[in-house]
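Quick one: structure tokens for this chain, please?
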Amino acid sequence: MSVLDLPTAPGREAAVIQCPRCKVRAQQVWGQLSFHRPKSPQEPFHDEAAVDVRTEQWIDGSTRSVQSKWRVAHCQGCDQKTLWRDGVNVYPITSIAPAPHPRMDTDVKTLFEEAGRVLPLSRRAGAALVRAALEKQVRILDLDAPKGARLDDHIARLSTRVSKPLGELLDVIRHVGNAALHGSENDDLVIMYLSDDVAADEIAELLFDAINDLVDELVARPEKTSALWSKLPDGVRATIERKRGAQGQS
């Protein structure tokens, strides 16, 4: 499932879905949600009437009332309930954007997680926030960049320091819809201008992946490697370094 696909309730016969709460594919027990407005405080609620009715306007100008279909799903995996309206998960509002890398900078992580929370409500706003998170992250990783370097410049420089797959992902981000990636000159005001052929969810998915991969390759892995290297005996490290020097001279 794409990180940006909102969960959609299936028909009653398709009861196994990925639960929005526990993120596990599990059996769901579906129930119809409805209510009856009591005539007096003493009268109990009854399961009789639709929760709400909305008005839709037709092309010819006429209107019609449409009854919303509210359903409750009881997950047999986590034993929790979710609320759905017309096939869309509305409570709790959950994002299936990826979790931030554990070694992500705190300021970047704050934006990254906010983008994930906003995503179910506004994909464009979520894309704008994760774009801001990417810009913060690349500035941290590219401290030697020229003053005034833009996101595109930082990405071009970092793409030479990472693996080929991540470098290609960064190049895709650089070139897929320049208008979508270039925000305001004011770093405090991030604006997303999306071209007709680039969707906000596609851009956001690339940005989430790129940030986590950058942190993994340029922060987490070097730290792990350095820790392992320091545990080698001095004689072993010296032998390895001599071999490296000999290969460099050949």
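Strands lie at 16-18, 25-32, 34-35, 49-50, 53-57, 63-67, 70-75, 81-85, 88-91.
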